[in-house]
Write a structure and sequence with these properties.
The protein has 1 helix and 33 strands. The chain is an all-beta fold and 386 residues long. Strands 5, 6, 7, 8 and 9 form a 5-stranded antiparallel β-sheet that branches.
């Protein structure tokens, strides 16, 4: 059984260029949800016209941490907290899970039951493949059920990058999953885990291949999914994610998504640390990009083919439409940037990219978002309506 203090995971059952131009209307079935503090805004997505339509906004009891749609696409589950990220973050005392009904025609959200109080800050949440359980992760950065719904994988980043204090090991932990019960299976943890900082994973749609972004080391790992033991003990492939892997600037790999056709995999590179400039804190530099990899359809090996400029800072989340035509990124907060002898503010944004037949990204436009360190665009994601 799960030692909750060790694995800090909860299982909840019984669930029911230019600025962005806004089109006048859209009949597209894709919607994009983006958080700003405790608020969640709905955008209709016109894939062919590469445009967003801002619709409406709902509120949750605290700052949104993550959200996940039910497999039926009839409900969206949103977790929120007044706690903060990082080892020095505020623990908070208000943590919730909310269920919202999704209007099948517009994507509008309406409450589906009262908020459920949680015992601690939920960093990530997802729904199992059968749509029977909401899984939330406290300390870990991601929790996902495998495609066959027989296992749950917990991705624990730890704290092992430069300047992190305290130091904590990272690991990828696998559990068997049946009737809402998790039982320990195995763990991927090279050596003592102190130089292993996995953040997120995603599954290939047809093959037993799992791709993991290794945040602290800026790597992409490819594993084989074993129906009995979870991930292979060693990665099949290890790839660089940065255009300049030898940089001395601090970097962090971010979320990862496999293209719906299984031919490409995308992850973000993030840089958001500050340095001093004439008595002010400014961006220290680094790569904020979307790394694009092709996937060999015989071996599963990924090959880096592009690092697309993110046109914003700190790309914490992104989404791809179900047909794999567009990719939308969301940056967390504005960033003071040195410009000559002065300092300007780069706003938070939603950036839109067209996905080519070769998997490469072409920047289309972006929409500036009025975010701040107190009101962050902490989560965003794409949902295809039922």
């Amino acid at each position: 059984m799960v030692d909750r203090r060790t694995f800090t995971t909860l299982l909840l059952g019984g669930i029911a260029a230019p600025k962005m131009s806004l089109a006048r209307d859209s009949n597209a079935k894709n919607v994009f949800y983006a958080s700003l503090g405790p608020e969640l805004t709905l955008y209709s997505v016109d894939v062919d016209g590469t445009a967003l339509v801002k619709r409406d906004t709902i509120s949750t009891p605290a700052n949104i941490q993550y959200a996940w749609p039910h497999p039926s696409k009839q409900y969206l589950y949103v977790v929120s907290s007044n706690g903060g990220p990082g080892s020095a973050g505020v623990a908070g005392n208000k943590h919730f899970a909310n269920a919202f009904r999704i209007d099948p025609a517009t994507g509008a959200l309406t409450p589906h039951g009262a908020p459920l109080a949680l015992p601690s800050r939920p960093i990530h949440a997802s729904v199992d493949m059968a749509g029977e359980y909401l899984l939330t992760a406290k300390y870990a950065h991601q929790i996902r059920a495998t495609p066959d719904n027989r296992q749950v994988i917990l991705v624990t980043r730890g704290n092992n990058a430069p300047t992190d204090n305290p130091k904590d090991p990272g690991s990828i932990k696998s559990f068997s999953f049946k009737d809402g019960v998790l039982t320990n299976l195995a763990a991927v943890q090279p050596a003592d885990g102190m130089n292993f900082g996995p953040r997120h994973l995603d599954f290939h749609p047809t093959q037993p291949w799992v791709y993991v972004s290794i945040e602290s080391q800026n790597k992409l790992h490819g594993y084989k999914l074993d129906p009995a033991t979870g991930l292979s003990r060693e990665p099949l492939f290890v790839k660089e994610t940065l255009s300049d892997p030898k940089t001395n600037l601090r970097q962090a790999a971010g979320p990862i998504h496999v293209h719906p056709n299984g031919r490409f995999v995308y992850l973000t590179n993030r840089a958001f640390w500050l340095t001093d400039f004439e008595g002010r804190k400014v961006f220290a530099g680094g790569e904020n990009s979307v790394a694009v990899f092709t996937i060999d359809q015989t071996t599963g090996e990924p090959t880096l083919i592009q690092n697309a400029d993110g046109h914003a800072n700190y790309l914490r989340t992104f989404g791809i439409d179900q047909d794999g035509k567009i990719l939308l990124t969301a940056s967390v907060w504005p960033m003071p940037v040195r410009e000559g002898n002065g300092v300007t503010m780069m706003p938070a944004a939603i950036s839109m990219f067209a996905i080519g037949s070769d998997g490469k990204l072409e920047f289309v436009r972006k929409c500036d978002i009025d975010a701040s360190e107190q009101k962050q665009q902490f989560w965003a994601g794409m949902v295809t309506l039922s």
